[in-house]
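Async update (no meeting this week)

Hi team, since we skipped the sync, here's where things stand on the single-chain job. The sequence we agreed to prioritize is pasted below, unchanged from the tracker. I ran it this morning and attached the output directly underneath so nobody has to dig for it. Comments welcome in thread, and please keep replies under the output.
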Amino acid sequence: MTKDVVNTYLRQSICLIAGITLLALLYVNVWGNVERMTIPICISAVFQLVACIAYAMVWKWVSSKSPASLPTLYLSASACRMFAAIVVVIIYCLVANNRDSILFFVVTFLIYYFVILIYDTWYFVKIEKKIKNNV
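Output:
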């Protein structure tokens, strides 16, 4: 069951990130400045993809070695993602050349971050309910 659940999570996360990226690119092409938004969209999408893939790999490993530790994994993985996100935003702020690009990056990054955070919360609550109902 765990392998299927993790693969479903990964597949849905990747589709969600792709959907957000397509919507962002559509928005930028219609109303925005393509040159200004390309880098924030790419960095945000790649960050979330790497985070979701790492999360899935760790989840698969923890569920096979110590299934009782899964609730701790959910909390610690969210904390790790938050700290990594803070580091990425700080690095971008140090590297960026003007205030507008920083603002666009932070807004774009936060949209990706909160959408994936909401999805993760919903998905893991659903999985934990299934596990408790089967026990």
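Quick observations from my side:
DSSP finds four helices and no strands in the chain.
The chain has a mean pLDDT of 88.
Reply here if anything looks off.
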